[in-house]
Amino acid sequence: MTGRRSPLLLTWLGLGYAFLYLPVLLLIVFSFNGSRLVTVWAGFSTRWYVELLNNERIIEAAGLSVAVAAASATLATILGGLGGLALGRIKGFRIRPVAAALLGFLFAAPLVLPEVITGLSLLLLFVSLDNIIGWPGERGFTTIVIAHTTFSLAYVAVVVQARVRLLDPALEEAAHDLGAPPARAFFNVTLPLLAPALAAGWLLAFTLSLDDLVIASFTAGPGATTLPMVVFASVRLGLSPQVNALATLFVIAAGLCVTLAVVLIARTNRTAKI
Amino acid sequence: MRRFVLGLPLAWLLLFLVAPLVIVLAISLVPAVDGQPPFASPLDPRNWTADSYRVLVGDDLYAAAFFNAARIAATATLICLVIGYPMAYAIARAGEQTRLLLLMLVILPFWTSFLVRVYAWMVLLRPTGLINEALIGLGLISEPLPLIANEFAVHLGIVYSYLPFMVLPLYAALERLDSGLVEAAYDLGARPFRAFLSVTLPLSRPGIIAGSLLVFIPACGEFVIPDLLGGPDSPMIGKVLWTEFFSNRDWPAASAVAIALLAVLVAPMVAFQTLERRGAP
Question: Do B16 and A115 touch (CB under 8 A)?
Answer without folding.
Answer: no
